[in-house]
Amino acid sequence: GDSVTQMEGPVTLSEEAFLTINCTYTATGYPSLFWYVQYPGEGLQLLLKATKADDKGSNKGFEATYRKETTSFHLEKGSVQVSDSAVYFCALSDRRGGSNYKLTFGKGTLLTVNP
Amino acid sequence: DSGVTQTPKHLITATGQRVTLRCSPRSGDLSVYWYQQSLDQGLQFLIHYYNGEERAKGNILERFSAQQFPDLHSELNLSSLELGDSALYFCASSVESGVSTDTQYFGPGTRLTVL
Q: Cα(A26)–Cα(B112) distance, rounded to whole angstroms?
């Protein structure tokens, strides 16, 4: 079945540091890929997505590129802020699902950014 | 605010009891997905409804059931509760135009504690 593997952390960085959170996936079909963010006490928010190979998703300074050859979708940000502290989830939705596009999630990475 | 509402926010109950979690999707969204988030299992897909019809089941126990009503709100019923059912339950909605890139918008979740 489909699966997502991401570095579990926790990751602790100083403000303005560079962030990378690795994510790799396994899917029989041709999935769409997502990064969701969960702030403390809140639900999940879509951060960015990519739907085909070499697509780059970007939002709020975060970027991730859909790499089919390495089955990866690593999240990066050039300069993190304290407000970026949250749990980040990599997820996929496999188009083979027909009428069901459930999300398969990684285990999440806790990011803490210190001033 | 995603536009998806969930009630109640917190629920504390005893083993063997039955509870109902409610979800109202964003205006215009026909699909509702339910997910369970627990420390040991992470985020897992439970069930998907589209316009009142069940579309797919994931890792949902037989003690759990759901339905989607004509006004498109959905309820997740959990019965014969066990300690291990303690978790955060999210619903998510999407337009579901038949494309897996449709964004799923998540509600704030219901935190269930079984004592």
A: 31
- How many other β-carbons are positioned within 10 Å of the β-carbon of residue B61? 14
How many C-beta atoms lie closer than 10 Å to residue A5's C-beta?
Answer: 15
Q: Which residue of A103, A107, A110 to mutate against B (max B Cβ within 10 Å)?
A: A103
Three-state SS for A96?
helix
Q: What is the pLDDT of residues B53-105, one digit of tens each?
A: 998 899 899 999 999 999 999 999 999 999 999 999 999 999 876 565 678 99
What residue in B sits closest to A44 (Cα-Cα)?
B106
- Say whether residue A104 is in contact with chain B using an 8 A CB cutoff: yes
Show residues of chain B in contact with A108, CB under 8 Å: 42-43
